[in-house]
UniProtKB/TrEMBL annotation:
Signal peptide region: 1-17
Keywords: Glycoprotein, Immunity, Innate immunity, Signal
Species for this entry: Anopheles farauti
A GO term from the CC aspect: extracellular region
Annotated GH16 domain residues: 180-483
Protein name: GH16 domain-containing protein
Residue ranges annotated for the CBM39 domain, each copy included: 18-119
PROSITE patterns for this protein: CBM39, GH16_2, WW_DOMAIN_2
PANTHER family, sorted: GLYCOSYL HYDROLASE-RELATED, GRAM-NEGATIVE BACTERIA-BINDING PROTEIN 1-RELATED
Length: 483
């Protein structure tokens, strides 16, 4: 991970305030290791990232990683694992991030060579007559899943590394035409194998022009009809399942895919990690979301909320009317509690870097507790959302706010949510009017309030489609941990 310049300057200016002590390594058992630093008043987080026998080239997530948010009973901030078997000579390459009094400090390019003495692990007895197995303690956690089932603190409760080569049974496709309840993106979500597939242990989701199908001519897009078999409209809305083209209304010019775990896995409170390479191309955006399982507070206007794990406007160069750069160099995450006006972006946080987020794989994270939602990229926390959404919504005259649980400040984010992965194109919410793209400063070809927005977008396809050299989103793994 490349740090933004402002963060580097901040950390450099404060190096005198705190120095990270040397990490202490221990081997309590024949497997695994323990890494720790002593507690100091003002410490807020100890993030440890390690891998075996392979140096880090950048701030990568690591094979053994955790954000430790509290010291243990011995006054140590400790990362503990019993997973790897570690013979003498194994090299642990690691880096550390520490948050101290709201400032960040780094310990990088470190390594530790394992040398165990015979006294490190208690010897086995010469003879054994009985065997007693003691289960690992199950720490209490606020995390629940699949209808309120309990689990243990820190436990991995969902994982897909896509090594099995199939999406079933964990994922199901959405089959629908998005409405204004979302972004009214200019696509139909379908289950075609060319739009979503697993290859080499990775999930690929890619948008395509509908005219790539020989059945769809330019005339059919302007005058034909689309009926989606197996439509998955959550409200059985016929407008999500079929469309008749006429006048200003055309058929969706792009086909894409969106998958979710709604019928397999959902959870309340936890930590999500998704390693993915995001798309690149004009007017494309990735969707790494958490969505409400039951829409308990309502469906329209995000009444039940939506969480963004990662989102970019995938243009290689895109500038808003005021000159602000808003393309794929800017990562956004956070929550939506309304689809209208500026309120839509009130609780989105951003991180800007020199490289496009579609240039390489990154690990995008979201940690959800009853008090706050924090956002990370490659282990770096770039944003936190902490608010009483009911009070904020009432001040903004949001009707749904009156339904949110008054006893849960984070409501509507107090119910179970499921994972959603997709790629959208266009729409009338996230790409601001009067923005310009590319080195030629080409104007955005549609206006968000125009009834012909989708038509104008389609008419400009010879310009934007040339930029779709890497329109796919590739997902390496998805993991969810209990708090």
């Amino acid at each position: 991970m490349k740090l933004i310049i402002s963060l580097v300057l901040m950390c450099t200016a404060q190096t005198l305030a705190y120095t990270i002590p040397s990490v202490r390594f221990e081997y309590p058992t024949a497997r695994g290791f323990r890494a720790s630093i002593p507690d100091t008043p003002g410490l807020q987080m100890f993030a440890f990232h390690a891998r075996l026998n392979k140096p880090f080239s950048k701030f990568e997530e690591g094979d053994y990683a955790e954000d430790v948010t509290a010291p243990d009973e011995n006054g140590l901030w400790t990362y503990d694992t019993n997973k790897p078997a570690l013979p003498n000579g194994t090299i642990i390459y690691y880096w550390v991030y520490v948050q101290y009094e709201d400032a960040g400090y780094w310990l990088t390019d470190k390594k530790h060579t394992i040398i165990r003495s015979k006294a490190t692990v208690a010897p086995k007895p010469a003879t054994t007559t009985t065997t007693t197995t003691t289960a690992a303690p199950c720490g209490r956690t606020l995390t629940t899943f699949n209808g309120g089932q309990s689990t243990c603190a820190g436990k991995l409760i969902f994982e897909d590394t896509f090594e099995q080569g199939t999406l079933a049974p964990k994922w199901q496709h959405e089959v629908r035409i998005p409405l204004d309840t979302d972004s009214a993106e200019f696509v139909s979500y379908q289950s075609h194998p060319e739009n979503s597939y697993v290859t080499a242990g990775r999930l690929v989701i890619v948008p395509t022009l509908v005219t790539m199908n020989a059945d769809y001519t330019d005339e059919r897009i302007r005058t034909g009809e689309l009926v989606l078999e197996g439509c998955t409209s959550p409200t059985n809305n016929p407008y999500e399942c079929q469309r008749k083209a006429a006048l200003a209304t055309i058929l969706p010019p792009v086909v894409s895919a969106k998958l979710n775990t709604k019928h397999y896995f959902r959870f309340r409170y936890g930590r999500v990690e998704i390693r993915a390479k995001l798309p690149k191309g004009d007017w494309i955006f990735p969707q790494l979301f958490l969505q409400p399982h039951e829409n308990f507070y309502g469906y329209a206007d995000y009444a039940s909320g939506q969480m963004w794990i990662a989102h970019i406007l995938a243009n290689r160069m895109l500038f808003a009317r005021d000159g602000k750069q808003i393309d794929g160099h800017r990562l956004r995450g956070g929550v939506l509690i309304s689809n209208t006006g500026p309120v839509r972006a009130d609780f989105l946080r951003s991180n800007v870097k020199d490289d496009h987020f579609g240039d390489q794989f990154h690990v995008y994270g979201l940690t959800w507790t009853p008090e706050q939602i924090s956002l990370t990229v490659d282990g770096f926390q770039y944003g936190t959302v902490r608010a009483n959404f009911r009070q904020h919504g009432q001040l903004q005259n949001l009707t749904q706010a009156n339904l949110w649980n008054a006893e849960a400040p984070l409501a509507p984010f107090d119910r179970e949510f499921y994972i959603s992965l997709g790629v959208g194109v266009g729409g009338v919410k996230d790409f601001p009017d009067f923005s310009v793209t590319g080195p030629t400063q080409t104007p955005k070809p549609w206006n968000n309030t125009s009834p012909k927005a989708e038509y104008f977008f389609y008419q400009n396809r010879n310009t934007w489609y040339r930029t779709w050299t890497e329109p796919e989103m590739t997902v390496d793994y998805v993991r969810v941990y209990a708090l």
